Amino acid sequence: MGRCSTSRPGAFGVPVLAALAAGLTVAVAGCGAAGPGEAHGTPSATPGPASPSPRVTSDVDLCVNIVGHWSREVLDGRGYGDYQSMGMSGGQYEILREVVDAARAARRQGTDDADALIDRQARQGCEAWYRGGGPGERPWR
Description:
0% strand, globular, signal, Lipoprotein
């Protein structure tokens, strides 16, 4: 057998696994068949497509998403009563309660646009909350 044996699981061997466990970066050469324009084990001169950068979601956008989601669930009778089981902080839950109260009032008045009201008020509440510092030092605030 050559340098690259794939006949058994864990072919990387103990030294590579020990290095990984120690937190070291290990480069592993590919052992597959050579593709067009490649010598065995040598990468192609033609690079592949670049990976897109991960998208970072702001704290405000995360707040708006969670408050909007749970506001709709509560209005439809599917929401939980405990903010922690919803994955929310106390501050986010306060915003949710204000948004749900406004959406209920809008529904009673016959306004069909409760979804737009939820989106608008969730964004306003979350932006104000984070503009004021967001969660404090206390847990779940």
